């Protein structure tokens, strides 16, 4: 069965170098990688290379729930694109595009089958929006 793909994107008012570095730096990831204010990312590990792994712990601030968002990189083209596969074999493809000093980030990912597609899109978009705010605060 073919997996449904979901697309999100954001235009970030920051240069490509800063966007790339901030997206992949574990100390920065802990600052932006959450979908709502009652969640956080207490730990992040990132080995950004083909075959390398990442693991970002996502946790409710009240301690009621946490999970590891982890995967393995299948393609890394610095300052251009990243692809990875999650533990359940869903894939994600990202593109980073210079737009006259701003950076467009495009993400396409396989939907999972537990939650509605719109909920998944909103959750991932919310995380990307938090990333945008974090990067722009550094620019």
Automatic annotation (TrEMBL):
Matches recorded under InterPro entries: ASHA1/2-like_C (IPR013538), START-like_dom_sf (IPR023393)
Similarity remark: Belongs to the AHA1 family.
Limits of the Activator of Hsp90 ATPase homologue 1/2-like C-terminal domain: 13-136
Provenance organism: Sphingobacterium daejeonense
Name recorded for this polypeptide: SRPBCC family protein
Pfam families per UniProt: AHSA1
